Amino acid sequence: MQQQGSVFVLACDEGARDLASALRTFHWAAHAFDSLAALLDSLQAQVVDVLVLQGASSDTAEQIAWLRRAAPAAALVWQVRGATSAGRIAALEAGADVCAQAGMEIQEWDALLRSLCRRGRRGGSAWRVDAQAGALAGPAGQLLPLTPTECAFFVQLLNAPGHRLRREELLPAEARGAAEGAARRVDVLVSRLRGKACRLDIEFPVLAVRGWGYMLRPDGERQGSPGVTARPDCPDA
């Protein structure tokens, strides 16, 4: 059976691993994390469909806000036992899409995740990174070969479709260095990708945002189209 989608589960106990393991039996590509930093690091290498935060702490709303900023296109579920109305409101205001009760059966989790994925990723793109093949796959069968750094570049864009990202955000953390140098390296990388796409007669699906960085072109739209936004943690340019 085909994989249903990618799910990242964050919790400070074994609950995350239990849920991720159970979801795999329903053909979800589920991964468990015991720290926010580890999850954010993985978002640099993989596009995610659903984020799940399990449990509550003094900084739950802040964690939810971090997750929403890191993957604005993904659905976000907060699961907690006995949350108050004020707690649920704070979670929703911070960026959660659903507040789920603790103790949900795995069949209900599967139904919930399928429902969220049916609604589609916010402004999602038909382009996909095929890390195994080392290529960007397009909706019309296009295949653009990618290096590992180029894969990481497109993963960042695909996790935030419809959002413009600063140049320095578009490289893996270990490859960034100084902000000015990182921006130049990204411009060179994009120039190389444009040339590669041109040689293969592939319309390059990335827009340059003047004075800012780059964004994934919304399907069917070109530069200057409405609907271009800054990433949630960045002010408009």
From TrEMBL:
SMART domains: Trans_reg_C. It comes from the Bacteria. Keywords: DNA-binding. The keyword DNA-binding applies. Residues 118-218 bind DNA. InterPro entries: OmpR/PhoB-type_DNA-bd, Sig_transdc_resp-reg_C-effctor, WH-like_DNA-bd_sf. Residues 118-218 form the OmpR/PhoB-type domain. Pfam families: Trans_reg_C (PF00486). This is Helix-turn-helix domain-containing protein. It comes from Achromobacter veterisilvae.
